[in-house]
Amino acid sequence: MTHLHRLAALLGVLPLALSALRGRLRADEPDRGDVPGWVMLTLMSAVLVAGLLLVAQPALEGLFQDAMARVSQN
User: What gap in Å lies between CA 26 and CA 16, rounded to an integer?
Assistant: First the structure.
């Protein structure tokens, strides 16, 4: 198959692909998702993890130092 035949085949499929894409991107489709909701969920999760890290950091550092001390003694 030559490059010209491949290009012709691609151009023949292109309108069908664009039509399918247009159909999927319609504004009235209920399953498009809620971007602001996902952004808020991501930010809230990041703040929660940061808060837990601030509270648990001294205990985690103590556990790590203890584990390293035990390993280096053996």
Answer: 16
Give the Å distances, CA to CA, from 37 to 33, 42, 68: 9, 9, 42
**How far is 54 from 61, CA to CA, in rounded Å?**
11
Q: CB-based contacts of 1: which residues, under 8 Å, 6+ apart?
A: 9
Q: Which of 6-15, 23-32, 64-73 has the highest mean pLDDT?
A: 64-73
Q: Please give the structure tokens belonging to residue 64.
A: 């790590």
Predicted TM-score (pTM) above 0.85: no
- Give the three-class secondary structure for 34: coil
Q: What residue has token string 């809230």?
A: 44
Which value, in Å, is the radius of gyration of the alpha carbons in the chain? 27
